[in-house]
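Re-running ABC transporter substrate-binding protein to confirm reproducibility after the cluster update. Everything else is unchanged from the original entry.
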Amino acid sequence: MLAGLTGTAVLATLSGPALALTEDQAVSYVQSMAADIEKTINSGRSDAQMYKAFEQLLNQYADMDTIARFALGPAARSASSGELSAYTAAFRTYLSKKYGARFREFIGGDIQVQGARKDKRAVIVSARAKPRGQSAVAVDFHVSDRNGKVFNVILEGVNLLTTERTEITSLLDQQGGSISNLTAELKRRS
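Result of re-run:
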């Protein structure tokens, strides 16, 4: 439950290109992302409107192309550009609904940035996420040094990017390795 809530915040993190991203820039982006999420959560919108708003936040703040390719695993290398494009679009909608469904549980919660540190090609922004009525948990937002967008989140030691890869490659296996069938299944689940 908490992973879904923070995953929402996680995947919806940074916007705009920023080469050689500084720690201060990454902290500012995560703080902006958190404010946008809180504004959306507390807007009183219907579930359908919130899912759509969350998909917009994902597209704005997260490196969805990188996340989608990684989640697809080795199959991404052999996919045609058309298959990859259709899959990525379906994955975005699927992910926005999956994590967006947890929004209401976060009403009244908050995310507090604790600090940041450089790491190879990323800035890792450490935060504490506290859903309403629950204990705070540690969250690390991995912000790309290349494009200034979030590409991964570690929630209490759980790597959400790896978790998505496990789930998507399992779905791909269930679809006989067909990316087109996987895309259709993601659309069905959205």
